[in-house]
Structure formats: C-alpha cells, structure tokens
Amino acid sequence: MSAIRVIGVGNPYRRDDGAGPAVIAGLRRHRLPTVELAECDGEPTRLIDLWSGADLALVVDAVRSGAPPGTIHRRSLRHPSLGRAGGAASHAVDLGDAVALAAALDRLPARMLLYLVEAEDTSTGVGLTPAVGAAVAELVEEIAEEVTWHATQR
Amino acid sequence: MSHRHDRALTVGSLSRVEGEGAMHVRVVDGRVSDVRLQIYEPPRFFEGFLRGRGYTEPPDITARICGICPVAYQMSACLAIEDACGVRVDDPIADLRRLLYCGEWISSHALHIFLLHAPDFLGYPSVVELARDHRAIVERGLAIKKVGNAILEAVGGRAIHPVNVRVGGFYRAPDRAEITALAAPLREALAAAVATVHWVAGFPFPDFAHDHELLALVEPGRYAVLDGAVRTDRGLAFPVRAFEEHIREEQVPHSTALHASLVGHGRYLTGPLARYALSGAWLLPEAREAADAVGLEPVCRNPFRSIVVRAVELVQAIAEALRLVDAYRPFAPAAVPVPARPGVGYGATEAPRGTLFHRYEIDENGSVTTARIIPPTSQNQAAIEDDLRRFVQARLDLDDHRLTHECEQAIRNYDPCISCATHFLDLTVERS
C-alpha cells in the first residue's frame, strides 16, 4: 500500500523529548489530506509497525549530540543514529536500533527521512524550551511542504 | 582483572531494561562486600500528587507511571477505589478487564523474551544482531507482540496508556466484531508461543539457584491475575487488604526506589517465578502441556530460566485471551456506578513483572487524601541484589568485561522496570 507517514517520537512529559509529538500536533492543524500522522513512544516494535509498508516515512525525534539546542539534524536512512535525548528514554532500544532491527528484518519503508531536534531540557514536565519550540514550528512548515510535494508526485 | 587484590565493576548505564539505573559491585579481598542497584531516575512523586485528586482519576494518572504496563496500574487502581467504595464489578466487566490484561502480558512478555533477554543467551549484543542471523525467530516475536497490542487497542482504545478504562468498568464495551477479529491472530500466536517455550528451553543456563521467599496473588482454580489473596511459598497468606501490615518499605541511600521486605520474613520475590510456583497447578492445558513438554519443574528457582516461565505465561495469556474472545458478548452499561464514599481501599493485580499493590484513602468529597503504590521492581530489588552478590562471588575468576556482562544478564532475568520502581541501570564492579 502506498503511503506517506509522519511519525513523532518522544515523551511530551519529558519537556524537549516531546518535540516529535509536538510536530505531529502542528501537522494535524494543517489537515493534510494524503498523509498519515502518528505519535510513538519510540518502542521499536511499534515504530517498525508504524513505518513498514510506507513509501515514505518521515520520523521526528529529539536527540542530544552536543549541538546547540534547537539545531535540526536532517538525515537520510544511511546515517540513522545520532543517539537519543539522554535521560529521557525509558524504552530499551533507541531509534537507531529500531532502524537497524527493521533493516535486518527487511521492514524499512521504501524511503525514510529523519528529523532530529537537538534537545536542551529533558527533565520531567511539559512544554518545550524556546529554541526547541522554534525548531518545531520550522519543522511543521517544512514537513507539510515536503509531504505535499511528495503527494503530488505519486 | 581477576588477579587484582581489590576489584570494582561498573555498568555505567544498564541496557535492555526499562528506565534508568546503574549497578555497583564492590569486591574486597576476594569477597563481594557490596552490591547496590542505583536508581537515579528522579523520584516520581505520584503518590504525592494523587492527593487532592478526584477518586475517579487514579487509573488514568497512575497509568502514566509505565509505558509497558499501564494496564496493571489502571487495574490495581480501579480495584482499590472500588474496594474503598464497596463496589464489585459484574462478571462481563471483570472478563473484559482480564482480556485487556492478557494483552499487556502478551505484549510485555514478548518484548522481554525476544528483544531484551534472548540475545543474552545466544551471545548477541542486541536483538539487531540476533535478527540478522535468526530473522524468522525475531519476526515470530514481533508477531506475538503485535497481537498483544491489538488486544490493547481493541479493548483499551490504544496500545499505550489505554483510554477506555474507568473506575467501575469501561467507557464503552467493544462491538463483538472488534473482539472476534482478534481470534485468528491469537490462534496463530498460540502456536508461535508454544514454539517459543521449546526455543527458550534449549538455551544454555548458568547453574544458579536462589532461595527467596516467593510471593504472588493466588486464586484457587485459576492462574491469578486480577483476583485472589496474597500467598508465599513459605506459608504466609493474607488478604490484599492487609498488605501494609505484612510489607514494609524502607529507603536506602543509593536508590530513589524504596526497598520492600516481608515483616518477620525479610526479602522476597514476586513475578513469573513466584506466580508459576504458587499457581502452576491452575495453568490452562495449553500452557501446562508446554511446560511439561520442556520438563519445567513445579518450582523453578533458577532466575536465568525465568525466560522459560515467561514463555509459558505467554502461552497462558494467549490461551486465556482466546477463551475470553470466543465467549465475548457486548454488554451495557459498560461500567457499574461507583458512588464515592469515604474510606480506604486496597487493590492488587499481577503485573507482568509481579504483584502491584495500590491503596487509596478517599474523603467524603470523593477526593484522594492518601495514596500508596508498591510496584514489583521495588519489591524485587533486595532479591536482585542478593542474587548478584552470590552470582559475582562464584564468578570472581572472570575478567571484568565478562563478569560485567553476566551481571547485566542476571539483572535482566527480572525484567526490571526502573520507571515503575522509582518511586531503576549503569553497572560498577569495584575490586579493592
């Protein structure tokens, strides 16, 4: 089945770890007709179920790589892992592992784009830091344009 | 190294466990002097912020404690509040709760067996490498887990933090078609789970036995999940309402999780090994046959073989879910009325990792005045530390790298859920 799916990974109760779900919430307001939106806690089997069979999966997650907060790392499938937002993950396998597991099982989507937002604060609580909030707003517009363009190409 | 006089092993961040924690082992003059599970996830204060909330809110609030076993929190909370209000739900509601709970057991046990624990026994660093060599087996695990998630979605409304549960029952009883759609995938999962019992039973297991007192809910006639009284294998028996008289929680400096013990008895173990020892006679025939076929003894005291018991419980949960699905008829109303009344209520259920106790005190306005939650991992902490102490002592000839790996495997025997216990892992072994 041909499909475009956007998956927001993270925990909104660990502040900036909620960047992925916040992007999904923003995209819902765009009412994009041809795209499936999903939030995910990052548990790998659920992630694999969400993206397998898709023509294109866009995955948004928070990371900590040492870059300035709010930095958006854009990656193709070849270099999926930047690690995760340290301290926020209560799940046992990270996004990079989920991609590697899906690859071993031949359950990756045809194409995957990763948007990784550099987190500042992953302590308990809700709400994004200003830098991450601005990155989320930017990503909502960028992904809306991206999926709209892909939808017209099918 | 093993020839050193003093030795310390550290696991900085324990992998393939739920939550955040560390382990520190200290060896002095060839004796293990100290074993500490350090839980550094911040205390979650759930018991504190439940105070002042409405008496109908704890099932939704406490479900947030854990993304792996939210149903356990919802169910223990519902039972405790209904107990306080003097209400007992009807059989159709109780059966649908049991089906939902089976979904959580299937999903949680499949995750632990295939993704977290099996790689230890087969010499793989993670499930990714396991999948490269044994793709069909990992596919089997994911398929079983998906059936569990399908139950959670059909009954609970969604797979994580189900939204259809309320005090007194459910917001909506699913249509018959939504539930009967689960039958075919469950039948496939049953065969896959039986095959899983045979697969894990063939793993190489270290020769190790513990002597912990085993504690679980027991409901004569069936494998207890949502009902029953508390029993131990040393003859202690008490109703759920009396758990605070028998279970003591103490703070230890190295952990933000409390350590639990049995008054007059000391440390104990809850979870699959305890349930199987105390309720094994009441396994459904499919699960009993699978256990017998691989020669699982009536009481298994080797924590490494807990993966076999967990696989037997996977068969049990699937077989039971099938029965519940076949018998399901939609019912109305989907919940019984639970009018608030001042009092104290107690609830306990068998979460995938062990017995989960809740207690709430409700005032005349229907507000929660006090709350108490004792999750399985904090109950098992002392037992895990004791296992590690003896396990490391017998393996001091191993180099630090190997010993550290084996300690991590020993911890994963208990499928510890650190998120739940905070109120849990890095490993340090210090040889000095």
What is the strand and helix layout of this fold?
The complex is a heterodimer of chains A (154) and B (432).
Chain A: E1 4-9, H1 19-30, E2 36-40, H2 44-51, E3 56-63, E4 72-76, H3 95-104, E5 111-118, H4 130-152
Parallel strand pairs in A: 1-2, 1-3, 3-5
Antiparallel strand pairs in A: 4-5
Chain B: E1 6-12, E2 21-28, E3 31-39, H1 46-49, H2 58-63, H3 70-84, H4 91-122, H5 127-133, H6 135-156, E4 165-166, E5 169-170, H7 176-180, H8 183-201, E6 213-218, E7 229-232, E8 237-238, H9 243-246, E9 247-250, E10 259-262, E11 268-269, H10 272-279, H11 285-293, H12 306-327, E12 343-351, E13 354-362, E14 368-374, H13 376-393, H14 400-412, H15 418-421, E15 426-431
Parallel strand pairs in B: 2-15, 6-11
Antiparallel strand pairs in B: 1-2, 1-15, 2-3, 4-5, 6-7, 7-8, 9-10, 12-13, 13-14
Helix pairs in contact in B: 3-4, 4-6, 4-12, 5-6, 6-8, 8-12, 11-12, 13-14
Summed up, what is this model?
The complex is a heterodimer of chains A (154) and B (432). Chain A has 154 residues and is α/β, with parallel strands linked by helices.
Write a structural description.
The complex is a heterodimer of chains A (154) and B (432). Chain A has 154 residues and is of the alpha/beta class. Chain A has helices at residues 19-30, 44-51, 95-104, 130-152, and strands at residues 4-9, 36-40, 56-63, 72-76, 111-118. Chain A is built from four helices and five strands, in the order E-H-E-H-E-E-H-E-H. Chain A starts with a strand and ends with a helix. Residues 79-93 of chain A have low confidence and may be disordered. Chain B is built from 15 helices and 15 strands. In chain B, strands 1, 2, 3 and 15 form a four-stranded mixed β-sheet that branches. The radius of gyration of chain B is 21 Å and the shape is globular. The termini of chain B are close together. The interface between A and B is medium-sized, with 21 and 29 residues.
